TrEMBL record:
PROSITE patterns: CTLH, LISH. It comes from Penstemon smallii. Pfam families: CTLH, LisH. It comes from the Eukaryota. This is CTLH domain-containing protein. Residues 77-134 form the CTLH domain. SMART domains: CRA, CTLH, LisH. Residues 1-18 form the signal peptide. Keywords: Signal.
Amino acid sequence: MSLFWIFIHHLAEVQTMATSKKLITKQEWEKKLADVKVRKEEMNKLVMNFLVTEGYVEAAEKFRLESGTEPDIDLATITDRMAVKKAVQSGNVVDAIEKVNDLNPEILDTNPQLFFHLQQQRLIELIRDGKVEEALEFAQEELAPRGEENQSFLEELERTVALLAFEDVTNCPVRDLLDISQRLKTASEVNAAILTSQSHEKDPKLPSLLKMLVWAQNQLDEKATYPRINDLSTAALEDPAV
């Protein structure tokens, strides 16, 4: 069990016991934490999970050698996955699709929504490059048939094609499609699909635990004054305000 889970457990315990808002000193809180024994192996697995999921292949390999923690997937597949992600982020969707099919053709064959979003991103890139005729032809031949089968796809297609109606996209209500955030969104979706195909969690465990920690502290704020962790990057306990 990770330190984060243990900390959350203690927060919930105090919340249950408190009938009125009580003061918990930093010394008392640290004593509770000191009584908890956390296996180093479990913490190492948490770190490795984060490195693998986020694609830090060099860091994962170094951490494997230093800690002896084995990843649950072949680290070589991380490089391939990151190549796909980088291709989408740079707007090279055709290359990204080829790389995904090289990894596992079933990923796109069994995920029509992901394939549509990749094709949608390809359409966006054509519009970004000012290739209007090519964009219209691509939308009609590749995306329109899928839109006829799925109402949500049709709505997304119509929203994307609307970019062509504006010479100045700064005044376009759908200009967010041309933002880098749209590429990142598509890249993240592809990354998650590849991880799922490899029987790996699509999201790292660490951020979820931190969110639970923040939630637990917010709940406990109503019941007690205690040493909070306000800076998650340092996890330092701050003296309770009295």
